[in-house]
């Protein structure tokens, strides 16, 4: 009997590529963690992917951390598309889409509020009925904010 990972892999067209957009601003500490998690979960499933880091001129050294991660994981997996200053989350996603080479786009936050372990489930859901859009929520089913610090919970209000 095939494992869940093997079933997921068999449903992926060899031509499919996933562009994961990761806007950042002052995420120097979170960036290595989120990148490691993305690489771990994407490599386990065998999907072709790239992570596009869109840094908005973070003063905390986020861009330097991104450059180090690019050296570790390679320029084909970690794509750097920085912007000069903080221009906002929405325009960061648009900027990332302009540079994406995948035929599917995933948008995430670098603050760890979107866990990469769910990416394979999103891909499987999209493929199950050829959906144009798949969205997650923390407000239904198994979603939630358990374990979040007060700062993250306040942003929900």
Keywords summarizing the entry:
157 residues; alpha/beta; 6 helices; 39% helix
What does this structure look like?
The protein has 157 residues and is an alpha/beta fold. The protein is built from 6 helices and 4 strands; from the N terminus they run αβαβαβαβαα. It has helices at 4-10, 31-45, 62-73, 89-99, 119-129, 150-154, and strands at 17-24, 48-55, 78-80, 104-107. The protein has a 4-stranded parallel sheet. Strand 1 (17-24), helix 2 and strand 2 form a beta-alpha-beta unit. The longest helix has 15 residues, at 31-45. The termini are far apart.
Distance between the termini: 46 Å
Rg calculated over all Cα atoms: 16 Å
Shape: globular
**What average pLDDT do the residues reach?**
83
How would you classify the quaternary structure? single chain
**Secondary structure category:** alpha/beta
Using DSSP, what is the number of strands? 4
Q: How many strands, what sense, and barrel or not for the largest sheet? A: 4 strands, parallel
Question: Counting H and I runs of at least 4 residues, what is the number of helices?
Answer: 6
Order of helices and strands: HEHEHEHEHH
The amount of beta strand, in percent, is: 5-15%
Catalogue the unreliable spans: 151-157
Query: What percent of residues adopt helix (DSSP H or I)?
Result: 25-40%
User: Spatial order of the strands in the main sheet?
Assistant: 3-2-1-4
């Amino acid at each position: 009997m095939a494992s869940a990972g093997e079933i997921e892999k068999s449903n992926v067209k060899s031509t499919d590529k996933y562009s994961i957009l990761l806007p950042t601003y002052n995420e120097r500490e979170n960036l290595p963690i989120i990148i490691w998690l993305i690489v771990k979960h994407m490599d386990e499933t065998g999907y072709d992917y790239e992570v596009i880091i869109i840094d908005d001129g973070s003063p905390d050294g986020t861009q330097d951390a991104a450059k180090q991660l690019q050296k570790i994981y390679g320029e084909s997996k970690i794509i750097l598309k920085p912007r000069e200053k903080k221009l906002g989350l929405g325009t960061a996603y648009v900027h990332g889409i302009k540079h994406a080479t995948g035929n599917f786009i995933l948008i995430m936050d670098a603050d760890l509020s979107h866990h990469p372990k769910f990416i394979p489930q999103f891909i499987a859901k999209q493929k199950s009925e050829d959906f144009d859009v798949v969205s997650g929520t923390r407000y239904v089913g198994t979603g939630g904010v358990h374990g979040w610090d007060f700062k993250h919970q306040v942003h929900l209000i």
